[in-house]
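Example with several molecule types.
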Amino acid sequence: MKEEETKKMHDGQAENAMVEIIDMHKWFGEFHVLQGINLTVQKKERIVICGPSGSGKSTLIRCINRLEEHQKGRIIVDGIELTSNIKNIEKVRAEVGMVFQHFNLFPHLTIIDNLTLGPIWVRKVPKAEAEETAMFYLEKVHIAEQARKYPGQLSGGQQQRVAIARSLCMKPKLMLFDEPTSALDPEMIKEVLDVMIELAQEGMTMLVVTHEMGFAKSVAHRVLFMDYGRIVEANTPEEFFDNPQHDRTKLFLSQILH
Amino acid sequence: MSLNDPGDTRTQGVKPPVTHVGILGWMKANLFNGALNSVLTIATLYLLWKVVPPLIRWAFIDSVWHTTGKACRHAAGACWSVVWENIRFILFGFYPYDSQWRPLVAMLLLFGLLFYSQNRKHWKKHLIYVWIGGLFVMGLLMKGGLFGLSSVESTKWSGLPLTLLLSIFGLTAAYPLGVVLALGRRSKMVLVKWLSVTYIEMIRGVPLISLLFMSAIIFPLFLPEGITINKILRAQVAIILFTAAYIAEVVRGGLQAMPRGQYEAAESMGLNYYLTMRLVILPQALKIVIPPTVSILISAFKDTSLVVIIALWDLLKTTQSVLANPEWMGFSAEAYIFIALLYFGGCFSMSSYSRKLERELSAGEQQ
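Resulting structure tokens for the full complex:
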């Protein structure tokens, strides 16, 4: 009885949630990298995650599309719980876009082929339609003229914008960004952030691991601070930056904001 | 005088010294670049002068081309007659003399198909059908028994067609099998992994000769009475199994060189294991390992000559038997040079094609 009730309540809550993470733990060998994460991401919500290196922020978002496997607790993405069921994992991955620190474009394919690969093979979209969609998103990230080139011929900033467009071609419901600007030369960071801001303005649900605090201030609904595998503090950007609660947050902010 | 003045002599009319350009410059840079290199160059030139003219005299000027073995014994140079007088036996062995046009046409068809397939523009679906059709015609030509062609037992297949049969099928079947084994060895499924590792290590632990012996002598003992499997097929299977194990290890090297991010990017868009491998990982990994793969294929091609020990009459064996004929005894240098040239032709075209393929595949990818 009681279980049923809580389940119902739970489902009611889940109505508007894109991601629900309940008491989730993960270990790398003996190392307890995530220690009881609880997080609900609402639809259209934009969350920025920051924290010192090794705090588990990348691991956290990589658990959401199961590039990393969690060992305890639950993760539910758009109503599908992540278990070892590979079909469910593939379903979730098709709905969740991911942008990596090192772009991870496919070097043996042209830009347009990079973009159409997922839609054609996962979504079974006809080739012509996939290419049309690809061109649309390439224009959106201001790089349409490079469609027939190979990734190696593009600058880092251009490659990262292609990577974002590649994710968008899958029409994802949620986008994960794992330090998307950390590997870029300073003059290229802005062009990538601009694309991400446009995306935010269109109402994409986004989880972004980044240290770009300007970006956090301008687009995030919530900023999470992680340390030692826990979410130490979660607040609106205004509160987070102007009035941090924890000593560790204050220390971290003082270190990165100079 | 201003800098823009076309008459400015500082930028015009100055050429590098004559010792740095043209043939003199090249010689200075490559042949006489320092005392040791100069000595080596002179020594090499002396050696060439000693070796090349006599070789040319032996091979071309004093040589005999169309005569009998007896006449050859009086010639000062090479007796190429041993090749030309016996060419049909060397190439086709025991294949019925009157029907030898059939293996010839089959081989020409094979070369035509290979030549057609080497162009990457033709790598489309129709190529598969072209090959299936081509193989059917080749098999029909060799075996006969249909359309008024007399039937020829496969025990009579010998010489160059047999060598080509063993190598082309050996290589084309071993390559995909090797890729599958390499994937198996890296599989997360314990049983698959264990089987692949066992297979690879066991095959690599024995010489090809012992595998061929097993296929010829031991394997038939396990078959029920009355059932025999064609000897050529058994040798063919042994060659495939052997080559596949080596290809597997080379391909595994390529797979290990792939950055983790490529797997993650493919998986994170929902591609399953099979598609990830087929579309993202293998095209890159196999390209990286083209040079070592071709080494293996070339050595497998040459190793097909080991089938002589289980009494298959491949190119090497037919040549040997010509030399066993008293009339032609003693002209082994000429005969072996001839088949060496045939083997060289095969190996060299493989390696130059692989270089071409590598160039084409990496065009555009790197900056």
